[in-house]
Amino acid sequence: MPDRGGGPTGPRIRAGRPSRRARTLLMTLGVLAVLGMAFTMFAGFWTDWLWYRSVRYSSVFTTTLWTKIGLFFVFGLLMAVVVGLNVWLAHRMRPPLSAMSLEQQNLDRYRMGIAPYKTWLLLAVSAVVGLIAGASAAGQWRTWLMWVNAVPFHQKDPQFHLDVAFYAFDLPWYRFLLGFGFAATILGLIAAALTHYLYGGLRVTSPGARATAAATGHLSVLLGVFVALKAVAYWLDRYGLAVKSSDFRATDNWTGLRYVDANAYLPAKTILFCIAVICALLFFATLWRRTWQLPVIGFGLMVLSAILIGGLYPAIVQKFQVQPNEQAKEAPYVQKNLKATREAYGIDDTRVSEYPGTSSAKDLAGLRDKVADTASLRIMDPNVVSPTFQQLQQIRNYYGFPNNLDVDRYRVDGKEQDTVIGLRELNLDGIPKNNWINDHFRYTHGYGAVAAKGTEADEEGRPVFTEKNLPSRGDLGTYQQQIYYGEKTTTYSIVGGPQKEVDYSDDEGEKTTSYTGGSGVNLDNAVNRAAYAVAFNEPQILYSGAIGKGSRILYNRTPKDRVEAVAPWLTIDGDAYPAVIDGRIQWIVDAYTTSNGYPYASRTTLGDTTADSLTAANNSRAVVAQQNQVNYIRNSVKATVDAYTGAVKLYQWDSADPVLKTWMKAFPGTVQPRSDISTALMDHLRYPQDLFKVQRELLTQYHVTDAQTFLSGSEVWQVPDDPSNDSRSAVPPYYLSMKMPDQARQAFSLTTTFTPNGRDNLGAFMAVNSDPRTSDYGRIRILKLPTSTTVAGPKQVQSQFNSEQDIAETISLLSRGHSKVEYGNLLTVPLDGGLLYAEPVYVRGGELKYPLLRKVLVTYGGRTAFEDTLDEALDKVFGTDGSPPPPDTGTTPPSTTDPSVKAALDDAQKAVDAGKDALKAPDGPDWGAYAKAQKDLEDALKRAEEAQARATAKPGAGSGGSGGKKS
Q1: CA separation for the pair 683, 271 (Å, rounded)
Q2: Which long-range contacts (CB under 8 A, 24 or more apart) does 286-293 make?
Q3: Are strands 584-595 and 577-581 parallel, antiparallel or unpaired?
Q4: 829 phi and psi, to 5 degrees?
Q5: What pairing do the DSSP bridges indicate for beta strands 764-769 and 780-784?
Q6: Phi, psi for 789 (deg, rounded to 5)
Q7: pLDDT at position 889
Q8: For 489, phi and psi rounded to 5 degrees?
Q9: What is the C-alpha to C-alpha distance for residues 242 and 660, in angstroms, rounded to an integer?
Q10: Quick check: bond before 8 cis, omega within 30?
Q11: How far is CA 413 from the centre of its chain?
């Protein structure tokens, strides 16, 4: 055997040291590990660049990237230099060391320990603080781009008379610079103080002077810089008062100066600015005086002044000047807030008019013909009938419709009408077998649009489809039906390669296709495949044989995600909707520019104001910008996403918006002019729901233009809860074609109702013209109901429906067994001074798992009908069906002084109350008691009529009415 210790038979191997082969292997593995980590970090960057290049918005990626890099290096380097320079200066100013005290002897050990690594330690500390500061600064890329590209508003604030652009674009950047300055100064001060202490410039327990002259001067300059920055902060705070939020009256986010701000805080900030400047000069003076006595006194004076002048004095003004006469003191400032808020949210042109709420027509039959002229009452609720579309038009399990369909306008039989539309999108949960190939290669897209008339149902209560079947055929004509981009398409697909895709199936079998849309990223390149394998954590992308020449990967496939990615400076509406335009399915996406710096305009949280019953749990309707607080918003961009190619186009919609102009300067060429919008696309644009919901929330208070009325709170409204469900969430706005009293013809509109604060009766009706082809698109109209009389609101109308005996009994019958009654949208339409309510009633029953329209509820002028069709219900309400009009539930029995009549009416009222109690029984409606109450009511009213007839038949008796009717 060879000698293990070495010798003539072989070389000696040193114990404990790996062989050259092992060292080479270890080095190779180390290098590969480093390269692997580097490639992992690089993969995300590379795939992002590829995606932006594929959608032809690479300038957005590069502009954003270079801005972030620039801010990172500039501010990171500044922070590193500030901290490093102060450490270097403190070290350079160190006194001759002499271990004269126990404190210095203990520190000497630390000094000796770090002595060999001083340079590296200095670089490391500087690098760490620089990296942190640079990363923080890179996050301010939006603030920088808005400041450097700022466009003026050409509107001045009422207090300082500066252009609004100063508050929207300049002030945020100045505040960032100020915050960075404070951070750099504090870190530099801490680093310098620690270095001075370590090297003896500062002493805590040693005898003699506590600080050397050099340390005193150094730290005094830094403290002087800090106080100087505080002076700048006081000066900027003066302007910050114009965009300061506070709780005032019923408005949680009231913004702008109030009396105490203008007369106490504003002068206090000016005084504190002057004191801070003097205090800073005193700190700088220690370079010559070498004593901290005066600057410490000055600093103490500044702190005391901040407490007394900045805190106590405003509290005294508020307590003794404002509160005793708040209305008079605050009115001028409230008036400024009213004007600014209405301008910032685009509600300054709102037209408010008085509306009686009750019709003066003597013959209701004459109004029947006006209904069709006034509104196209939509009985197909897009938020209810999605399961019906699913059941009747899904065709294959791997297709699906969104939970909430959309309402648009299409020409049917030569006439434009409201249409409920949805796309048959891909549903991966329904494919025959889930595996990687099926999920990402074979089942890649949906197929076809399905549309139905909004105002009709067939004899069985199903939608009347105008576009249906697979492939889809109907009134929409010929168009590209494959849907590769949609609201339900949230996973990636690999298309265009050797693997064929399932197009659709019919009686002849499965039809296949291969994508030719040209979108997505090419996977021919091995580097691209490796990058996506890492980015998607899907190793098979790297080696799968299903990927070959021409293969492309599609991702970021929802319309909202695509628009948000190419325009990260926009806030995207929660509801994209599809339209068939020029032979293609286009997703239309509304986008907003927002700001949080409009002076005097009250703030709102978008996530709260855009929430309603459709955004509650188990619904697909998204909430826009959940926590974003804004006080300026414009629907400045209309975007489209092609459902086949994924192409994104941004169109300038609001050409006067300075925020959009600023972003267009920052990202030139990304937004196309409004003139590029085709006529076919214009036919399908509409007023966005989320903007409307923000505006209606503001208009609950800001519909008034008088400060005294605003302060009194007597005109505050609220958005009612949705009466058709138990979510206790706000009623959503509804699209329908209708005309307001001052309009000559119907227009596609978005409508809502208001109730007085804390009450259920109707306070106002609001509609906005949503048809951009008309001259008054975007005009908000509010019909304000009188406060002297009570008009039923949505909740009361729903309760009235449910309490009608015939209706309640029918609903009970429809709900038997496993059937479930679902109420559709309760539509409100102004008609001849009154308000017409219409609500479809669906039944999802038995073996049918989808809702069918079974009844339509209509009420007008206190008369209610519950019939199989809308026309039958309207005919009955207006008495044009040949039968007497239904009872006027809004009319009370006649009053008289005759004792017998009065007694009969008292009995009638008791019967009404008993009937209500029977319907509200703890264990459910007591129909037996309810029937008895109705019989008692009928008997009482009959006795009242007979008694009234006897009273009027007496000589000299007046001609009292006989109109006692069933309640």
Answers
A1: 59
A2: 286/216, 286/217, 286/220, 287/217, 287/220, 287/221, 290/213, 290/216, 290/217, 291/216, 292/216, 292/220
A3: antiparallel
A4: -135, 125
A5: antiparallel
A6: -125, 165
A7: 46
A8: -95, 90
A9: 23
A10: no
A11: 38
Contact 600, 256 (CB under 8 A): yes
CA atoms within 13 A on the CB side of 914: 17
Rg (CA), the chain: 37
How far is the CA of 591 from the CAs of 124, 137, 634, 644, in angstroms? Answer: 45, 27, 8, 21
pLDDT score recorded for residue 962: 31
Cβ atoms 839, 827 nearer than 8 A: yes
pLDDT, residue 489, reads 92
Helix or strand holding residue 735 (H, E): strand 734-738
Residue 5 is predicted with a pLDDT of 44
Question: What is the rounded distance in angstroms from the CA atom of residue 56 to the CA atom of residue 770?
Answer: 31
Please give the Cα distance from 628 to 66 (Å, whole number). 26
CA distances from 593 to 616, 650, 666 (A): 25, 13, 14
Q: Is 799 helix (H, G, I), strand (E, B) or coil?
A: helix
Q: Provide block-wise average pLDDT over 10 residues at a time, the chain (967 residues).
A: 45 57 77 74 88 95 96 96 92 73 67 78 90 94 96 94 96 96 95 86 66 85 94 95 81 84 92 93 82 79 85 87 87 93 94 89 82 92 92 89 92 87 92 90 94 92 92 93 94 92 83 91 91 91 90 95 95 93 96 94 89 66 68 96 96 95 96 95 95 94 91 89 79 92 92 91 94 93 89 86 81 79 91 92 80 92 88 89 57 48 69 66 62 71 66 43 33
**pLDDT value for 840:** 94
How many Å separate Cα 858 from the centre of its chain?
Answer: 34
Beta partners for 702? none
C-beta of residue 630 within 8 angstroms of C-beta of residue 604: yes
Is 834:359 a contact under the CB 8 Å cutoff? yes
CB 479 within 8 A of CB 580: yes
Question: In whole angstroms, what is the distance from residue 226 CA to residue 184 CA?
Answer: 10
- The distance of Cα 625 from the centroid of its chain, to the nearest Å, equals 4
Residue pair 837/858 in contact by the 8 Å Cβ criterion = yes
C-alpha to C-alpha distance for 82 and 137, rounded to whole angstroms: 16
Q: Which two structure tokens, joined as six digits, stand for 884?
A: 């007497």
Exposed, middle or buried, 357 (CB in 10 Å: 0-12/13-18/19+)? buried
Nearest CA-CA partner of 626 in 574, 577, 591, 671: 574
Token match 């001067």: residue? 217
**DSSP H or E segment with residue 342:** helix 326-344
Collapsing DSSP to helix, strand or coil, 455 comes out as: strand
* Cβ neighbours, 10 Å, residue 840: 27
Count of CB atoms situated within 10 Å of the CB of 68: 18
Decide: 630 and 596 in contact? Cβ < 8 Å. yes
Say which residue the tokens 């996406």 belong to: 589
Question: Closest Cα partner for 416 from 381, 454, 385, 473?
Answer: 454
Q: What is the pTM of this model?
A: 0.85
Q: Phi then psi for 863, rounded to 5 degrees?
A: -100, 135
Helix, strand, or coil here: 474?
strand
- In the chain, the N- to C-terminal Cα span, in Å, equals 116
Residue 876, CA distances (Å) to 235, 797, 865 in order: 70, 17, 6
For 429, half-sphere exposure in the C-beta direction (CA atoms, 13 angstrom radius) is 4
The full set of domain ranges for the chain reads 20-52+491-556, 55-209, 212-344, 894-967
Q: Which residues contact 417 (CB under 8 A, 6 or more apart)?
A: 376, 409, 410, 411, 453, 454, 455, 737
Of all helices (H) and strands (E), which one includes residue 666?
Answer: helix 658-666
Burial group, residue 552, by CB count within 10 angstroms (0-12, 13-18, 19+): buried
CB distance 67 to 145 below 8 Å: yes
Please, are residues 764 and 724 in contact by the beta-carbon 8 Å criterion?
no
